[in-house]
Design goal:
Layout lengths: L1 H10 L5 H13 L6 H10 L4 H9 L7 H19 L1
Helix pairs in contact: 2-5, 3-5
Length: 85
C-alpha cells in the first residue's frame, strides 16, 4: 500500500494548486479507507486532463459513472472546506 500511495501522490501533482490540494486531500483523508471501487475511480480521475477534472470539481460537469461521481462528491466537500478556510 505504501508504494501505491507514493505513486498516487506523485500523480496528484497537477498544474493547478487547487487540484493539488483536492487530489492530495482525498488521497490522504479518504483513499486509505475507501472501497476498492472508489480507489479505482480515484486513480482513473487522476488520468484526466486538468480542465475536465476542474469542471467536475466546480460542478460544471458530472461524471457519467456513479462510482466516479461519488468520489467527485467527496472531493467537492474538500473544495468547500478549502473555500471556507
Amino acid at each position: 500500500m505504501e508504494e501505491q500511495m507514493g505513486k498516487l501522490r506523485w500523480r496528484c501533482r497537477r498544474g493547478m494548486k487547487e487540484l493539488d490540494l483536492l487530489t492530495l486531500g482525498y488521497l490522504e483523508r479518504y483513499y486509505p479507507g475507501a472501497s476498492a471501487e472508489d480507489q479505482q475511480a480515484f486513480a482513473e480521475l487522476l488520468e484526466l486532463q486538468d480542465p475536465l477534472l476542474m469542471s467536475y470539481m466546480v460542478g460544471r460537469e458530472t461524471p457519467a459513472d456513479a462510482v466516479t461521481a461519488r468520489v467527485v462528491g467527496v472531493m467537492r466537500t474538500l473544495l468547500n472546506s478549502i473555500d471556507d478556510a
